[in-house]
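Hey all, quick one. A colleague (J.T.) asked me to put the zinc ion job into the tracker so the inputs and the structure tokens live in one place instead of scattered across chat threads. No bug as far as I know, just bookkeeping. Sequence used:
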Amino acid sequence: MTAHRLRPDCRICAGTSLVRFLDLGKQPLANAFTSPARAAPEERYPLAVYVCEQCWHVQLLDVVAKETLFAEYSYMSTTSQTIPAHFAALAREVEAAYLAPDDLVVEIGSNDGVLLRAFQGRPYRILGVEPASNIAKIAQERGVPTLNAFFHPATAAQVAAEHGRAKVVLANNVVGHIDDLPGLAAGVRALLRDDGAFVFEVPYLVDLLDKLEFDTVYHEHLSYFAIRPLQRLLGAAGLEIVDVTRQGVHGGTIRVHARPHGTQPVHARVGELVALERGRALDSLRPYHEFAAKVEALRADLVRTVRGLRAQGKRIAGYGAPAKGNTLLNYCGFGPADIEFIQDTTPLKQGRLAPGTRIPVVPPEHFRANPPDVAFMLAWNYEAEILAKESKFREAGGRFLIPIPSPRLV
Ligand code: TMP
Ligand code: ZN
């Protein structure tokens, strides 16, 4: 049994008044794609979402040991076209805003180096920090200097001692994975120059609530951020949010620029999002309870839709095997009788079984050779890219089922 604990307190303010508003039951780890040879069922851990009544940070309290989740990792950033293009644009924005020749750019959770590669051939020093040894190795092979480590204050001190302080620290879709958020914020501040910037992206709570993206909840995602809890977290470490923009990737993300207090005026966009969050009453329990009720109804709708299609004799296959697909499939109770197989482009996932549901994951060639009637778009965050790529499947009569915010056949 892997180490797991129930945190007693909020990971931003340490408050102990936390309300559980969404319970997704006991679920296996969403990236634990298993070998068909393994007979034992995957281990399951409680998966429930809480909100802190003191700082209104939305979070999981069930914490699975980070070594279990991230020491080996099956997620690679470069498995789509959307993400590399998004990161190239981010790199150009950061370069224009902050960088001068010889500056150091450090990325936390640098994965396969996709973002840092967008700085290659430019006159800056780059360094990735990536805990997954298999992924860090791939980045190194691609010429991205990478420290194979978890980021915490000691890592920050080591990097600063060896390379000097950073002009820019980047972190994309990783802040929400970190249990010790005050340690992260303090480490970033210590690593940053006084004129530096911390630029990071996290999925936005408002998008999660609005689009019923309940499937983005899994054990790796410990936090679901809104601006005000973030301001509190960063402020305690001497950092101030100076700008924020909403981005379309991953179902709705915010790109946050934070700098040491007083470095630059705060852009009006920050206040606009704070006002939006006030308007949604995110500092009250109501929106969270409403969300949970809608998620229950969505589950019933998804089960009805899939079972209805099966009753008509339609064959259904999953399209994309993202971690969130496993939350959705397990929460709905689907298995191989409902979803025949899941096609995914990631070699590390192919030939394995989806955790919990034990649906086989196959390469795209299998999908092409055995097209189903309906492709369940589990990777709905790439809807545009996938629809463009699979025009032939639809011309031949195939349909995509898009699960959120309500099931839709296209
Ligand atoms: P992500 O949403 O966590 O980025 O994961 C997306 C998953 O979907 C990843 O395993 C790759 C897979 N995928 C496909 O199989 N085909 C595709 O066309 C795209 C865009 C993604
Ligand atoms: Zn709190």
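Adding what we noticed when we looked at it: The pocket of thymidine-5'-phosphate (ligand 1) is lined by residues 75, 79-80, 320-323, 344-346, 349, 379, 381-382, 385-386, 389 (CB under 6 Å). DSSP finds 13 helices and 19 strands in the chain.
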